[in-house]
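User: Structure please.
Assistant: Input sequence and predicted structure:
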Amino acid sequence: MLVKDFMTPDPVTITPDTSHQEAVRIMREQGFRRLPVVDKHGKLVGIVVEKDLLSTQPSPATSLSIWEIHSLLSKLKVREIMSHPVYTIGEECPIEDAARVMVERKIGCLPVMRGDKLVGIITETDIFKAFTRMLAGGEPGIRLTVRLHRHKGVLAELTKAIKDAGGRIVALATLNEPDGEHKRVAIKVIDSNMDALREAILKHADWELLDIRPGGACPEPELVG
């Protein structure tokens, strides 16, 4: 899965001369929290995010009148508040590389490039959506987590055990443990039942069944406060 499979293509852009008020209007009307900034030639020169715009607004405790605030913000240009230079990523890069860059650089989005042309934007929300799809989040089935030794062919053995229990795997993800000897495998399975799957796993003395539950077993989130 590549960045181009999950990015928002042809993102809305603004220019360095766009006013603060216009940038705020675009974000509110379009439901965006980030806007790439391009020059008159279409070259990416920066990015402005919602917090940049909010941080430049006067405090509620200001002694300025609403008209004075309006006048000041109308003169403030994006070039004065945008972030630059900008970390970017290529559209053909794996999505996990985009996630890694965001984590390492502590940023919430990456403009996506095809050569020197801006072709999209990928955000932390897009990464969450990809993660959800990879693990078949919200889909029916049985979710199990198994701890295994990192032996060659162990995943093939595990998938065969699930197949022999009548199961069909719809999602699978692995996580290597820090000890360098074990991995955890999270699997979403359909066409089987928990008793059959549990029995199939427990037949292997060196496998540890960490968790098994119906998919969607967690309750829907509640609003509190």
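The beta strands are 8-9, 34-38, 44-49, 89-90, 109-114, 117-123, 142-149, 168-176, 182-190, 208-214.
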